[in-house]
């Protein structure tokens, strides 16, 4: 279930009612009541999930979801105890169900600094807007013209810079967010429908653990359903992008212009050089190093240093670079008469 501090849960609908509104056909179990959406792996009997790719067939077989949305060819693979909706665009149908069952809480009303602050040591500078349910810990400072969305929790001794926006987020102690940082915006998720491309609702959160620093104009997207997590004491430079569902370990360094795609898992003590780019659904092991400008398209084992595009172990990259330079030099050398 999405966090109720950030998302309103709307009235339950039956499987038949959902199918009629999301463009699917009920295969069985149309009378079952559904209260929420969830992924296959974490859904319960009150939730609806979907199969979007055959590689998740095992998750479909093991799901506890009350209802599953599947393409026509996967009906037989659905668990016998689950209700089934058939759709040729299962992810789009699930996204439509999300909009029917959950709604993000908007900043319709603001609260006073006295309502949000733990005590008088909290400093709220001019122009700050605080949504309902915001809590700010002792000794923290919120700088001018920053917007803190509904339900956000900020720990003690934090510094939130000017013109920052924070939403759908839980922030630990001693966190620093520099000017213009964007925390908790919707992750980039889209899927095709018969009418064109539609956005997929993003129902997760951002969690910044103790001691995290986020540089100016950097963006950390909230999870699509699970959380985007930045581990303790990780330091993020200016102009860095962290996509939805990423889990970044402790004591990592992300240098300027690094871009990390969605659902990347990073171990502790990893360093990303400037302008490194990481593809989605990649795992980077503890203590790994990614050189500046590298384009990572495969998992990196713990402790290794990779460079180049596509990135590979640095010794291999250097050997190939030297060989290529020698080949180029040989071709340019004048022929002896």
List keywords for this structure.
337 residues, alpha/beta, Udp-n-acetylmuramoylalanyl-d-glutamate--2,6- Diaminopimelate Ligase, Chain: A, domain 1, UDP N-Acetylglucosamine Acyltransferase, domain 1
How would you sum up this structure, described in words?
- The chain has an eleven-stranded mixed beta sheet with strand order 10-13-16-19-24-27-30-33-36-38-39. A nine-stranded parallel beta sheet has the order 11-14-17-20-25-28-31-34-37, with no helix packed on it.
- It is flat, with a radius of gyration of 24 Å.
- The chain is α/β, with parallel strands linked by helices.
- It is built from five helices and 39 strands.
- It folds into two domains: 7-104, Udp-n-acetylmuramoylalanyl-d-glutamate--2,6- Diaminopimelate Ligase, Chain: A, domain 1; 168-315, UDP N-Acetylglucosamine Acyltransferase, domain 1 (3 Solenoid), CATH 2.160.10.10.
Helix content: 10-25%
Strand order of the largest sheet: 10-13-16-19-24-27-30-33-36-38-39
Radius of gyration: 24 Å
Count of discrete domains: 2
Total of DSSP H or I helical runs spanning 4+ residues: 5
Relative strand content? 25-35%
Report low-confidence residues grouped into runs of 5 or more: none
The CATH architecture of the largest domain comes to: 3 Solenoid
In whole angstroms, how far apart are the ends?
79 Å
- Report the CATH topology name of the largest domain: UDP N-Acetylglucosamine Acyltransferase, domain 1
Give the beta-strand count: 39
Backbone shape: flat
Mean pLDDT: 95
CATH superfamily of the largest domain: Hexapeptide repeat proteins
Q: Which CATH C-level class of the largest domain is it?
A: Mainly Beta
| Sheet of most strands | 11 strands, mixed
Class of secondary structure makeup: alpha/beta
């Amino acid at each position: 279930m999405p966090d109720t501090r950030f998302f309103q849960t709307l009235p339950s609908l039956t499987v038949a009612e959902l199918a009629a509104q999301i463009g699917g056909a009920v295969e069985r179990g149309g009378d079952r009541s559904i209260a929420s959406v969830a992924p296959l792996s974490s859904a319960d009997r009150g939730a609806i999930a979907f199969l979007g790719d055959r590689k998740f067939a095992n998750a479909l077989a093991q799901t506890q979801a009350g209802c599953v949305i599947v393409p026509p060819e996967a009906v037989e693979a659905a668990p016998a105890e689950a209700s089934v909706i058939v759709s040729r665009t299962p992810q789009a149908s699930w996204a439509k169900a999300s909009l029917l069952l959950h709604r993000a809480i908007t900043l319709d009303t603001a609260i006073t600094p006295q309502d949000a602050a733990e005590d008088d040591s909290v400093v709220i500078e001019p122009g700050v807007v605080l949504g309902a349910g915001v809590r700010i810990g002792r000794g923290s400072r919120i700088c001018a013209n920053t917007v803190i969305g509904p339900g956000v929790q900020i720990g003690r001794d934090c510094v939130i810079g000017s013109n920052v926006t924070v939403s759908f987020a839980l922030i630990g102690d001693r966190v620093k967010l520099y000017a213009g940082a964007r925390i908790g915006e919707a992750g980039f998720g889209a899927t095709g429908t018969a009418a064109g491309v539609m956005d997929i609702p993003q129902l997760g959160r951002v969690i910044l653990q103790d001691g995290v620093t986020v540089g100016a104009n950097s963006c950390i997207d909230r999870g699509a359903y699970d959380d985007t997590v930045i581990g303790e004491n990780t330091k993020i430079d200016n102009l860095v992008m962290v996509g939805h569902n990423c889990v970044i370990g402790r004591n990592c360094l992300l240098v300027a212009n690094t871009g990390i795609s969605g659902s990347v898992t990073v171990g502790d003590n990893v360093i990303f050089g400037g302008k490194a780019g990481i593809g989605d659904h990649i795992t980077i092991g503890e203590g790994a190093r990614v050189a500046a400008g590298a384009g990572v398209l495969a998992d990196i084992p713990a402790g290794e240093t990779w460079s180049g595009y596509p990135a590979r172990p640095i010794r291999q990259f250097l050997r190939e670079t030297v060989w290529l330079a020698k080949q180029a030099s040989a071709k340019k050398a004048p022929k002896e008469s």
